[in-house]
Design a protein that fits this description.
By secondary structure, the protein is mainly α. The chain has one domain. The protein is about 75% helix and about 0% strand. It has five helices and no strands. The longest helix is centred in the C-terminal third of the chain and has 32 residues. The protein is elongated, with a radius of gyration of 26 Å. The mean pLDDT is about 90.
C-alpha cells in the first residue's frame, strides 16, 4: 500500500491540458468583464437530487447496476447453502462448515 501511495504521489495535481483550458477561460472572463467562476460551491440537497436524477436516467450506468444485482441474486443461494453442502458432502460439523464459509 505504501508503494502505491508513492506511485500515486508522482501524478501531477492538475493535468496540463486542464490547466491551459482554465487559464484561457479565466482570460476570456477577464477580457469580457464577466465575474470569475466560483471555485467551490457548498453542496446542497437540490444538487443531490439532481445528481441522483442524472444517474437514474443514465442508461449504461443503470444497466450495469441491474446486471450487478442479478449477478448477486444468482450467487445468493450458493452462499446461503454452502455450509449445509459442506456438512453433507464432506461429513463435517456445522461449526466447521460455518467457519469455512464465513
Amino acid at each position: 500500500m505504501f508503494l502505491f501511495g508513492i506511485l500515486l504521489s508522482l501524478f501531477p495535481k492538475t493535468l496540463p491540458d486542464a490547466a491551459v483550458r482554465k487559464m484561457v477561460a479565466n482570460e476570456k472572463r477577464r477580457l469580457t468583464g464577466a465575474e470569475p467562476e466560483k471555485e467551490h460551491e457548498k453542496p446542497s440537497f437540490k444538487d443531490m437530487i439532481a445528481t441522483f436524477r442524472r444517474l437514474l436516467t443514465n442508461k449504461p450506468y443503470m444497466s450495469i447496476q441491474i446486471s450487478h444485482i442479478i449477478y448477486i441474486f444468482g450467487y445468493m443461494p450458493y452462499w446461503i447453502f454452502m455450509p449445509k453442502y459442506i456438512e453433507t458432502q464432506y461429513r463435517r460439523s456445522a461449526s466447521f462448515s460455518s467457519l469455512i464459509t464465513g
